[in-house]
Amino acid sequence: MKHFLSALDVPDVTALADSAAAFKAAPRSAETLGRGKRIGCLFLNPSLRTRLSTQVAAQQLGMEAIVFNVGAEGWALEFAEGAVMNGTTVEHVKDAAPILGQYFDILAIRTFPGLKDRAEDYSERYISQFVKYAGVPVVSLESATLHPLQSLADLLTIRETFAGGRRPKVVLSWAPHVKPLPQCVANSFAQWMTVWGGADFVVTHPEGYTLDPQYTKGASITHNQDEAFEGADYIYVKNWSSYEQYGQILSNDTDWMLTLDKLKATNNGKVMHCLPVRRNVELSDEVLDSAHSLVTQQAGNRVWAAQAVLADILKSNA
Ligand code: CP
Question: Angle 148-161/184-196 helices, nearest 10 degrees?
Fold first, then answer.
């Protein structure tokens, strides 16, 4: 694997999840693999789990990890080709990225979408420009449309907790939120579920929240949440703003919040969320604090997902 921006960069997602599970069982099993190598983690946006789990993973591989909150502390970057930079941007990515490529062996980047211009966000211009100009492997720490490290941790969580001896039923359920959020986590989870192919995968959301079909191809899609939950083994709760009326909040219907009562229709369903979560808006306290919730285990698995990805890139680019 040269870069890690999406499930489509991964030759075998099951093998990568197996590698993550192996690191979970033996965290220091490759502690010299990254010796003498340095990863630069650039955050144009805030983070808790992604920032810390990636640093821990890199250190467990013997790498040095340097974090730069470029969004808050760096020069304002310009990404437009041919821009006349007489406004607020100070440095073009064409100039900054090659320098970062000299400082680091791997560059990892978080860059959220603006949620104003769908074509612009879905072009993934920001992270693509780093790929184009840095000259080193690039890892997505969540881009405008996808969050692949989260999705790999999600896949690991499902695989390590399911003991049904059959295909699990996995439901991605939209939930209300107070702010317009990107589609990244939902797009990415749908992409990983469909590429993996090991689950009966259902997406449920109110009208107007259809995701980009390139990510949900092969999934069952319904506006009927109760029907979707019937017999479900996993409910992945996530808000996203509208893709169709781009970036808009079309509904804040509190009936879509997951409660224990709704879980009665499931197969003792396990509940997932990428975090951070708005308690009693997306998910009720009673669900998050119950044995149904996998959110802490899921967030813990972010370390092993990052470690598997970095190890693969280190080996592939040795
Ligand atoms: N799930 C996730 O990416 O968490 P952070 O935004 O805290 O990194």
Answer: 50
Residue range 3-147+301-317, CATH number: 3.40.50.1370
ipTM computed for the complex: 0.99
User: What's the pTM value of the predicted model, to 2 decimals?
Assistant: 0.98
Please identify, by atom number, the ligand 1 atom nearest to the C-alpha of residue 46: 6
Distance 68 CA to ligand 1 centre (A): 16
Number of residues in the chain:
318
Contacts of 309 (CB under 8 A, 6+ apart): 1, 4, 16, 139, 149, 152
Which one of 3.40.50.1860, 3.90.1150.10, 3.40.50.1370, 3.30.450.40 gives the CATH number of domain 150-298? 3.40.50.1370
Q: Which residues line ligand 1 (CB under 6 A)?
A: 47-50, 142, 150, 274-276
Closest residue by Cα to residue 216 from 194, 239, 240, 241: 194
**Tens digit of pLDDT per residue, the chain (318 long)?**
999 999 999 999 999 999 999 999 999 999 999 999 999 999 999 999 999 999 999 999 999 999 999 988 999 999 999 999 999 999 999 999 999 999 999 999 999 999 999 999 999 999 999 999 999 999 999 999 999 999 999 999 999 999 989 999 999 999 999 999 999 999 999 999 999 999 999 999 999 999 999 999 999 999 999 999 999 999 999 999 999 999 999 998 999 999 999 999 999 999 999 999 999 999 999 999 999 999 999 999 999 999 999 999 999 988
Ligand 1 center to 48 CA (angstroms):
6
